[in-house]
Each structure stands twice: as C-alpha cells, then as structure tokens.
Design brief:
It is built from 15 helices and no strands. By secondary structure, it is mainly α. Helix 4 (95-106) runs parallel beside helix 15 and helix 12 (222-246) runs parallel beside helix 15.
Amino acid sequence: MIASFLMVGKQVLILFIVVGAGFVLGKSKLLGEKASVGMTNLVIYVVSPCMMVVAFQRPFDSENFHNFCTALVFAVAIHLLNIAAVTLFLRDSDLKRQQALRFGTVLSNCGFMAYPLQTALLGTIGVFYGSAYVLVFTVTAWTYGLYLMSGGKGKVSVKPLLLNPGVISVAVASLLYVLRISLPDILYTPVEYLSHLNTPLPMIILGYQLSQANFKIVLRCRTMWVSAAMRLLLLPAAALGLCLLFRPAHDVAIATVAAASTPPAALLSMFAAKFGQDTALSSGVVSLQTLFSVLTIPVIVGFAMTLF
C-alpha cells in the first residue's frame, strides 16, 4: 500500500515541480497574461487533440473498446452523483457564489491535470480511457454548467456542445481507431512530438494561474471549505467506491479515479467571466484547491492503485 502512495505521490510531485516553474515565471513577470492565454489555446486546440490521436493509434481490440465504453458509463454515473451531491449538500446564502462553487465541485480538471497523471501511471492507454471521462465532462459543462453559471438564462446550444476541440478530437481519434486507420509516419511523428507537450504546458499554465490568485478572498469563504472537502476527498472517494462495487478493469478504474480526483476545472474562471460571476473567487477556488490536491490526489489514487 505504501509503495502505491509513494508512486502516485512521486508522479504528482513531479507535475507540481513543473507547476512551480510556471509560478516563478508568473511572479517574476517573465510570463504574462497574453502568453498564458496563448499557451492555453495551444494546449486546447493543438496539443490535447494530438495527444488524443496518439492515444487512439493502437490496433483495434474488442476488450479495449469494451473498457472504453465501461469508462464512459462510469463517467456518466460519477457526474450524475456529483450533481446530486452538490444539490443536496452545497448551499450558500450568496446565490452567485453557490453557483460557482457547485460548478467547481461537480466538474474536475480532468483534462489539464488528469491526462498527464494518467500518462505517467498507465501510459497512452490511460489517456485512451481517460478521454471517456473528458467527453462526459464536456457535455456536462456545456449543459448543466452553462445553466448553472448563467443563472438559468443561458441557452444550451448544440454548436459549442459538439463543435469544441475536446469532442472533435475524441470523435476523430475514435473514428481512426474503429476504422483501423493508422497514420503514416510522416504525419504520426509530428503529431506525437506535439503530444509530448501535454504534460509541461498545462502545468506551467496552472503555475502562472497560481501566481496571480488572490487567496484572501477564498480563505474567508466558509462554503469553499465544504466545496474543497467534496471536490478533493468525498466525491473522489465515492468514485472509488463505485469502481470497487462494480470492479471494472484495473486501467479503467485508475484512469477514472484519477480524473475524478483532480481539483476544479479551469473552465470555472472562463464561465465566471462570461456570465458576470465573481472571477476573483472563481480563480481563487481553482488555484487554492489545486494546491490542496498535491496532498489529496496521492491518497485517493494511491488507494485505487492498491485496491485494483
């Protein structure tokens, strides 16, 4: 058991050392907001899709395909469980603050933080199964999340729901996988090179965001502590319990629990800005819980590694 905790802890610590580089760059003004936005766009529109293609460039295997579908079902169940939990237990006298905290508690940073961790623990098969979680996350963010952050005024549109980099990259990669199309080396090699940026770039971006966060606002918010306990401990533990109950394959369980254990999605800050919510609170929640996750992720994922 201790070996599992140490292994996961080592991988998380490695990632946070890279986060530290982004923090130093932000504090020293060597990295600014424009550069951070540019890197974020690079990750969303180029690096993550390339990583998805690489993960799906494998011989078609009925067992792997079955496991992917299983991961998809688990992701749906976990998101529904999260929504039910915050509806029942996460309440605040300030409605806008409640909406932001519910969003951050339901939706984890399953792309930026989970993909590098899944790659470190499982290799490309971890991203393969982890993409099922991201697919459900994307649909949830642009339906439930949109409704929540807009105060019920935002209309769910098919265009952002389907025509976004996350869904498109999974669709294209899945199509290549199901049709058993292998990219020629002249295309696959540059795609693979770009996919290797998926670990350092998101971590540097997170580090920059930490360097700009106002923690005083967040620390005074009592409900944030409830949100942190749910997002980082209780809901990941529930996801682990669900996996223990139904016993999926080892790699599916680890990829799913890793995705469910990450801190609030960075999308929270973007939605807060878009719908006139408290951006300082939102960015602070993401940043502070990201710091806490360096302690909680090894515990939850370490237990998963031990039990599966």
